[in-house]
Amino acid sequence: MWNDEIVDEVRAIRDAHAAKFGYDLQAIYADLKKSEAEHIAAGHPFIPVPERPVPDTALQRSRFAHR
């Protein structure tokens, strides 16, 4: 199987971060939100995830109705 060095490095960092909090998802989330707030306070740009668009035509409404 082919391994990508970058993917392996990202996974190792992610695992080390999770291990630091005992793999507790709530603690990991709280740490990420704290880090996010610190970066925003330091003046770094923050781009929020856009919300899903609302269909505005009959075709879009029928196309996305099953999702």
Please characterize this protein's 3D structure.
The chain has 3 helices and no strands. It is an all-alpha fold. The protein has one domain.
Labels describing this entry:
mainly alpha; 67 residues; single chain; 60% helix
Proportion of helical residues: 55-70%
Number of domains: 1
Task: Give start-end ranges of low-pLDDT stretches.
Answer: none
* Total beta strand runs: 0
Order of helices and strands: HHH
Total of helices: 3
Mean pLDDT: 85
* Class from helix and strand fractions: mainly alpha
Strand content: under 5%
Write down the Rg.
19 Å
End-to-end span in angstroms?
34 Å
Could you give a short account of the major beta sheet? none
Shape: extended
Write the layout of secondary structure elements.
Layout: H1 5-20, H2 25-41, H3 58-64
Offer a quick outline of the entry.
This protein has 67 residues and is mainly α. It has one domain (5-64). It has helices at 5-20, 25-41, 58-64.
